Amino acid sequence: MTTDHLQGIYAAVMTPMQDDLSCDMNRLAAHCRSLLDEGCHGVSLFGTTGEGPALTTDERQAGLEAVLTSGVAPHRVLPGTGCAAIPDAVRLTRHATGLGCKTVLVMPPFFFKDIGDDGVVAFYAALIEGVGDPALRVIIYNFPAVTGVWVRERAIERLIAAYPHAIAGVKDSSGDWPYVAALLRQFPSLAVFSGWETWVPKLVAAGGAGNISGMANVIPGLLRQLYDNRSSAATLSRVSRLVEEVSKYPIIPALKVLAATLREQPSWRNMRAPLVALPAESERSLVMAFERILNEKDADITTGT
Description:
Layout: E1 8-12, H1 25-37, E2 42-45, H2 57-69, E3 77-79, H3 86-98, E4 103-106, H4 116-131, E5 137-142, H5 144-147, H6 153-162, E6 167-172, H7 177-186, E7 191-194, H8 200-205, E8 210-213, H9 220-228, H10 233-246, H11 251-262, H12 280-294
């Protein structure tokens, strides 16, 4: 089992699209650099928030290359390389490790449901063996609401036993704190991340690594503030209220609206089907509520420009 933990606030980076819905590689790279400058410890590409399943393997490879070529250090990039087809996942993972990104975020296959522990173990085993890189480190991505698959503790235990140097951690987006707490107790050497921003204080206090966060696209400085000063009730309250406002709407369209407004770049609203833009009234309500909370007098927040 690896002990070289990742830690901190990682942005689950949104993928900017041109008006023709092609990926805007230059703006992706610029966005990643801004997020790092504004407080994120690292960036994670092409996961759920990044619309990874809607992108081709060629697009995901080109996007990673653009980010690295722009000067972002490989150790600060956590590429999402999960795909429904194992050969595609192997291809993306080999590409990432070949560019120096030795740690990758991998969700289980997300078409076949109820595959059980045996199917989960078989998928990750095929990936690790197919890549064949002894330096590979895998963060298992548990998000059953979108994949339809739970990565249970027993499957993780079996994978660690078979590939002790390859399994680096777990990102959990299930929202099930007892599951996360069980991971922390059972696998103290794993880097356990959560996708839930409001859990940062209690997760890190319990031995967790940090947060891989969609909200970091729009409030990177505030989340870094929460990570660095986890005892601040005021900061946690503000993050909680902002998350509550965004959670009233489909998450990715809501975050893209906020990015378009806060960063004054209207094309952030672009996204591929089946995702669709928020209705105009919902957009106005979200932006007004979000900006009201951001502009409270005691704000010490970096949102970017």
